[in-house]
Each structure stands twice: as structure tokens, then as C-alpha cells.
Specification:
The complex is a heterodimer of chains A (452) and B (251). Chain A is of the alpha/beta class. Helix content of chain A is 19%, strand content 37%. Chain A has helices at residues 10-20, 28-43, 60-63, 80-83, 129-135, 146-153, 390-397, 403-416, 425-439, and strands at residues 68-69, 94-99, 102-103, 117-121, 159-163, 173-180, 187-189, 192-197, 202-212, 218-228, 233-241, 247-256, 261-270, 273-282, 288-297, 302-311, 317-326, 331-340, 348-357, 363-372, 378-386. In chain A, the strands form 2 sheets. In chain A, strands 1, 4, 5, 7, 8, 10, 12, 14, 16, 18 and 20 form an 11-stranded mixed beta sheet that branches. In chain A, helix 2 (28-43) runs antiparallel to helix 6. The longest helix of chain A has 16 residues, at 28-43. In chain B, 37% of the residues lie in helices and 25% in strands. Chain B contains 7 helices and 10 strands. Chain B has helices at 40-48, 72-78, 95-109, 117-130, 148-162, 178-190, 230-250, and strands at 2-11, 14-24, 29-33, 54-62, 65-66, 80-83, 166-170, 197-202, 215-220, 223-228. Chain B has a 6-stranded mixed beta sheet, with helices on both faces. In chain B, a hairpin with a 2-residue loop joins strand 1 and strand 2 (14-24). The two termini of chain B are 33 Å apart. Classes of the chains: A alpha/beta (452), B alpha/beta (251). The interface between A and B is large, with 30 and 41 residues.
Chain lengths: 452, 251
């Protein structure tokens, strides 16, 4: 791309696209979110790496491109056979396919929803008007994050998951977000997810991101909001396997009432620049939040996981555990931020970030950030970065296993530990196979018993 | 089978082995005893191919091949097995996965078909029964969270699966209570075979009550200073290493 084709600033280009959508149809609640988004886009600027929260993540490569917004369901020509490989098949209660952020009912399956669970698309969630009013855009507002503002401004559709009071839905809803690489230049898509678990209910969902079509550039700006009412449990899995040229900026935001549990897993495997802003607010006593993640980077990938838990009430527990394996010239960024408000006594918060660097050119910037205003709390943090010690490699070699194969097995072992807490067997074994194949030397035909 | 000639080796430029000579034939069990710091573990590590130990002189032939020329993994594939004094913990990798990979590497090097997961599972359970190890060990990460005794038994299990031609047990008896020692010794005895040789490196005579050696050698200050039959171990036990040190000092 030459500079003379770009006259407008990136923000102006997004605003021009936004103008074209003016007056697009939609229910009032959607227009309200869009309006807040548009105003925020006008008021905000894209984050700069001079800002503390973006210090290690330069988003310039994302803004170099001109994107056409995914304004309507794409003419993608996908049929059931094309989406079948993404389906988990077992262990899930529904598999909903979205292309460029728009729901594709003909490609989706939602026959096995348990009593009390709603899983569908936002655009058709009008029956839940009060819930949408209460939650949509309330937990992850359009400000101050420009990417959230864009997502709100371009809101058209998304996923809606609702567990009614006392509903127990253990099997997750599988949301498959496919993005087209676009024949007419790169597409920007704005997937949106709202998951609400009412009092004493239990629900789970998987967000999976993948490309369809030829390899190429696109941009996904994603916002996920999760609300767990008193005594509710919400489990969230995110699997990011974007195209190697694609960009992915995501905000995942939880809001927790008394005695609620939110657990979020984030698996990042592919994408040129991927950022996950994962956070939750423990707003009632006895809440529990666990954020787990695994990022496997290669080539010139940049993956930034920015985690944040706010303890706003006493007697809550939190855990942040992220692991990374960095290969090639890739760059990993991890932040584990804990804010303990003055009234949040008896907080028990722990975090650990462990990284394995496979090359001398891969880098990781890792940072715990504790802000504690209460005086009776337990907060720990730790991070490790390294390579397998020689004595461990020698142990393998003394058993007939080559150094190359030993390193592959050790990397697999390090990464796959994160899967131990994944309760969905079909998802766990699929992730296990992917991790295994990435690190197994080519001639190594062994199948680990975990994957069978 | 194994011919060690004038072997000198050092660690961090400090000479530990200063001319070891030893021959081991098929079916024999040799015990190498000696006080702490005499070079017993160094000898085991050098034979297994640990590159942290530098061989400065001498040679080792194994089955007619120059052992010292081979990297550790090739030695293992040829049939050399060392049970570690301090087995390493390997998080995230189960015993079954580790052993299947090891066995298949050895089988491949001999032109044999690799065992698939089902076939291996069967073999593993058979070997676990042979060395009296709980089947639950198969799916636990290698040595992680194992007690000292469990780690040593796990080494014996690995030996049973890999069926080496030469087994070197580096202080496998140290730190074991009498029950664990019996289980380990029992495992070693069950794997005794006219085709397999064993070198037992030990500080104590205790294990030799259960695994009766054909030969006993005493390593002291990097050389074998005395060799004999199993009665030498008893004599050492009775008189202690000081007896030997004094005898050597006056000789």
C-alpha cells in the first residue's frame, strides 16, 4: 500500500464507513448501543503504545489497511459440509455459526437446548428486551476502549445466551465465528456476544474464531459481555485461530454478583496480532473468578493477553493462570492486573504466568500489576520464563529419545497442562491434538493417549 | 560385552575418574562400591553419555562398538540403560506417553514396527505387574509428585519396558526403606537374564543381600582399587571404608 492512497486518518476512514451505515435498520436497543458507539468513536483515539496499557502492543499494522465493514450477511457460499469440520459434534448443546459476525441459521444446530437456556442471535433476541437493556453495552461500554467503541458503533448481530433462574446447562453452546478474507479487500467484522446467567443457573459457551476462504488480511473487533447473577456459574472458552495475516482485538468482560463463579479460558493459536482484554468485576461477596489462558505463537505474531480482576467486595477469590510458548520472532505480552478495593477484605488472589521461549528471537513482556487498597488480603503473583533444563533433555536422550523429539514432547507437555481443567471432552481432545501436532517432530507418529 | 580401558573423565576440569579398567560379560552382575566422592556416579553418567562429563583418556567398547563416540540416545537404542540416582520430573508428560516414545525409538532403530497405543498399553500393564507398580502410575506425569521410593521404582519400570542389554543402576538403593528396597531388588532380580548384564553402583552392602552380585569392585579416588566376589562386600560392610583407606595408605 502506498502512502498517497491514504489521505484520511484511520479514524476518519472508520467514520466514513460508519456514515454509510447511517439509518441502518434495527431495534431501539441496538440503535442505542450503536449511537453510544458512534459518539465514542468520534470522541476517542486509537490507543498509542505510549499509553501504559498498550506499551508493548503496537497496533499500527492493523490501521495500515482500509477495511470494508461487514454490513450484511456475506455472500459466502458456505454449505453444511464446509462448516462441519468446525463442529465439535458431542458434548455441546448447540453449535451456532456466524459469518462476519452475522448469524447463519441454516448452517447452525440448536436442537438440544436444555430447559431454561436460550441460545441464538442478538438480532432476534427482542423477546429479552429487558435483559438486553440491562446488560448489553453496560459491562463493556463503548468507552474508553476505541475497539469497543467500533464494535458498538457497527453492531448488527451477535450471539445471545441466556440461562434462566435455576437452569443448569452444563454442556456449552459452541459459537463458531468465521470471517471471510474477502475478494474486494479486507473485511472488518464486529462479532458481539452477550451471555447472561440468572440466579443459581449454570451455563457455558465456546467462542471459536477461524477464517474461511483464501488466506488474507481481515480485522475482527470482538466484544463479549458476561453477567453472572447471585450463585450463578458461567464458563467461557475462547479459541482464536485466525488467519496468519489477520488481526483480532477482543474485550471479554465479566460482571459478577454474590457467590457467582466465572471461569474463562483463552486459547490463542493463530493470528498476526491478537489482543485479549479479559476482565471481571467481583461485585458481591463470595464470588470466584478464574482466568486461564494459553498462547502459542510463531513467526512474527504478536499476542497480548491483558487480564484484569477487580475485587469490589469482600471474601472473593481469583486466579489468573496464563501460559505461553513462543517460537520464531514472535512477541508475547502478558499483564495480570488485580485491583482490590478498600472494602474487599479477605480477598484471596493468585496469579502465575509461565512462558517457554523456543528461540532466541522470541520475546515475552510479562507484568503483574497489583493495586491493593484493603489491608486484610492475600495476593500472590509469579512468572517464569525459560527453556527446558539440559538435565531434563538428557533424561529423554538416555531413554533413546532424540533432543529434537524431547523438546517437542516437553513443549507439548508444558502447553497441554492448561487443558486439565477443560471439562468439555470433545473440545479438550481437539485442543490436545492441535497442540500435539504443532510441536511433534514430523516423523514422529506417536499419538498421545490423551488424544484417543 | 563391555570393556572399559584406562578411563579418565573430569567435570569442570576436575579429574574424577583416573584410569578405570573393567570388563563385563553377558549375564553378569557387577557391584561397584566406594565411599562418597569416589567417582561411582561419574562412571555411570559417562557410560550413559552425559556430556557434562568430559572423557579425557581411555576407551569403552560395548558390543564391539566404540561407546564413547555415540550420543546418549544411540547408546540407549543399542541397549545401555542407566537408572538415575535422582530421576528428573517431567511435568505434563505421562509415564505411558514417555515410555511409549522411548520404546518406539528403540524399536525403530532395530527396524521393528512401532507399537500403537493399544499394543503398548498391554505391554506396559504386563511390565507394571512384573515390577509390582500400581497401574495408576501410567497416567501420572513422569516422576512428578512421586516419593523418593516411587521414583526409583519408576526407573525399574522403565528398565523393564526397555529391556536393555546393559543396565547401570546408579545408587537405586539409596534413600529407600526396607520395603521399597525389597521391591526394587525384586524387580532387578526378575529382569536378570543370561543375555543381560547389570552394574549396581551402590554405597551400601544392603541391596547386595537381595541382588547377589557375581563380582564386587571398590572404586576409590577414581580407580578400582580392589575386586573380588560377593564376600568382598561383606568384608567392606564389616570393616568399613576406612579399613580400605588405611590399607591403601600403608601399601
Amino acid at each position: 500500500m502506498t502512502t498517497d492512497t491514504i489521505k484520511a486518518t484511520p479514524k476518519e476512514r472508520f467514520l466514513v464507513e460508519l456514515q454509510k451505515l447511517n439509518g441502518a435498520p434495527g431495534p431501539d436497543w441496538m440503535k442505542r448501543v450503536r449511537k453510544a458507539g458512534e459518539e465514542s468513536v468520534k470522541a476517542l483515539d486509537f490507543p498509542h503504545h505510549k499509553e501504559e496499557e498498550w506499551r508493548f502492543t503496537n497496533i499500527k499494522p492493523i490501521l495500515q489497511h482500509e477495511y470494508a465493514p461487514a454490513a450484511a450477511p456475506a455472500d459466502h457460499g458456505l454449505d453444511a459440509a464446509a462448516v462441519e469440520p468446525y463442529f465439535l459434534g458431542t458434548g455441546v448443546c448447540a453449535e451456532l455459526v456466524f459469518v462476519n459476525g452475522f448469524y447463519e441459521p441454516a448452517l447452525s444446530r440448536a436442537e438440544n437446548l436444555p430447559q431454561g437456556l436460550t441460545a441464538g442471535n442478538l438480532a432476534n433476541a427482542g423477546d429479552h428486551g429487558a435483559t438486553l437493556e440491562k446488560h448489553l453495552g453496560q459491562h463493556a461500554p463503548a468507552r474508553p476502549n476505541m475497539f469497543n467503541a467500533l464494535n458498538a458503533a457497527f453492531l448488527h448481530d451477535g450471539a445471545f445466551i441466556y440461562a434462566a433462574q435455576n437452569c443448569v446447562a452444563r454442556e456449552p453452546v459452541h459459537l463458531i465465528f468465521l470471517t471471510t478474507t474477502g475478494e474486494n479487500g479486507p473485511v472488518a467484522a464486529y462479532p458481539r456476544v452477550l451471555a447472561v446467567a440468572e440466579a443459581n443457573s449454570e451455563a457455558a459457551f465456546i467462542e471459536q474464531f477461524a477464517p474461511v476462504g483464501q488466506p488474507g488480511v481481515y480485522f475482527n473487533s470482538v466484544v463479549t459481555e458476561m453477567a453472572a447473577a447471585e450463585g450463578a456459574r458461567l464458563t467461557h472458552y475462547k479459541v482464536t485461530q485466525e488467519a496468519d495475516e489477520a488481526f483480532h482485538m477482543a474485550t471479554i468482560r465479566g460482571a459478577q454478583e454474590k457467590d457467582s463463579v466465572i471461569q474463562s479460558f483463552s486459547f490463542t493459536f493463530r493470528g498476526r496480532i491478537v489482543r485479549n482484554d479479559v476482565s471481571s468485576v467481583l461485585g458481591g461477596e463470595g464470588g470466584d473468578c478464574k482466568l486461564n489462558g494459553l498462547y502459542l505463537t510463531q513467526a512474527d505474531q504478536l499476542v497480548d493477553n491483558h487480564t484484569f480482576i477487580e475485587h469490589a467486595a469482600p471474601h472473593c477469590a481469583s486466579w489468573i493462570g496464563y501460559k505461553g510458548v513462543l517460537d520464531g520472532k514472535s512477541h508475547g505480552v502478558f499483564t495480570g492486573k488485580i485491583l482490590v478495593q478498600r472494602d474487599a477484605q479477605k480477598t484471596d488472589s493468585n496469579q502465575l504466568n509461565s512462558n517457554m521461549l523456543l528461540t532466541d528471537t522470541a520475546t515475552i513482556d510479562t507484568k503483574p500489576q497489583l493495586e491493593i487498597f484493603a489491608d486484610d488480603v492475600k495476593c500472590t503473583h509469579g512468572s517464569t520464563t525459560g527453556k527446558p533444563p539440559e538435565e531434563v533433555i538428557f533424561y529423554f536422550r538416555s531413554r533413546g529419545i532424540s533432543e529434537e523429539m524431547a523438546r517437542g514432547m516437553l513443549t507439548y507437555g508444558f502447553a497441554s497442562e492448561v487443558l486439565e481443567d477443560v471439562d468439555v471432552e470433545s473440545l479438550r481432545s481437539r485442543l490436545d491434538r492441535w497442540i500435539f501436532h504443532r510441536y511433534s517432530p514430523k516423523k514422529h507418529t506417536l499419538v498421545p493417549e490423551k488424544a484417543i | 560385552m563391555l570393556d572399559i580401558r584406562n578411563l579418565h573423565a573430569s567435570v569442570d576440569d576436575i579429574e574424577i575418574l583416573r584410569g578405570v579398567n573393567m570388563k563385563v560379560n553377558e549375564g553378569e552382575v557387577h557391584a561397584i562400591m566406594g565411599p562418597n566422592g569416589s567417582g561411582k556416579s561419574t562412571l555411570a553418567q559417562v557410560l550413559a553419555g552425559n556430556e557434562a562429563y568430559e572423557v579425557t583418556d581411555g576407551g569403552v567398547d560395548f558390543l564391539g562398538q566404540d561407546l564413547l563416540e555415540m550420543p546418549a540416545e544411540e547408546r540407549a537404542r543399542l541397549g545401555v540403560f542407566m537408572a538415575f540416582q535422582y530421576p528428573t520430573e517431567i511435568p505434563g508428560i505421562t509415564n505411558a506417553y514417555f515410555l511409549q516414545a522411548a520404546l518406539n525409538e528403540i524399536r525403530k532403530s532395530h527396524g521393528l514396527e512401532e507399537l500403537d497405543a493399544m499394543e503398548f498399553q498391554e505391554l506396559l500393564h504386563e511390565k507394571m505387574e512384573l515390577v509390582a507398580i500400581d497401574p495408576g502410575f501410567a497416567n501420572r506425569p513422569v516422576n512428578q509428585g512421586f516419593s523418593g521410593g516411587e521414583k526409583k521404582r519408576n526407573e525399574i519400570l522403565q528398565m523393564a519396558v526397555m529391556e536393555p542389554k546393559l543396565a547401570i543402576l546408579d545408587e537405586t538403593d539409596s534413600g529407600l526403606d526396607i520395603d521399597a528396597l525389597r521391591i526394587v531388588a525384586d524387580g532387578v532380580n526378575k529382569l536378570r537374564d543370561p543375555k543381560r548384564a547389570t552394574i549396581l553402583v551402590t554405597h551400601y552392602q544392603r541391596i547386595l543381600e537381595y541382588v547377589v552380585p557375581d563380582y564386587v569392585h571398590v572404586l576409590y579416588q577414581g580407580v578400582l582399587v580392589k575386586s573380588g566376589g560377593k564376600e568382598l562386600a561383606l568384608e567392606l560392610e564389616k570393616k568399613g571404608y576406612d579399613w580400605l583407606k588405611n590399607e591403601l595408605a600403608t601399601a
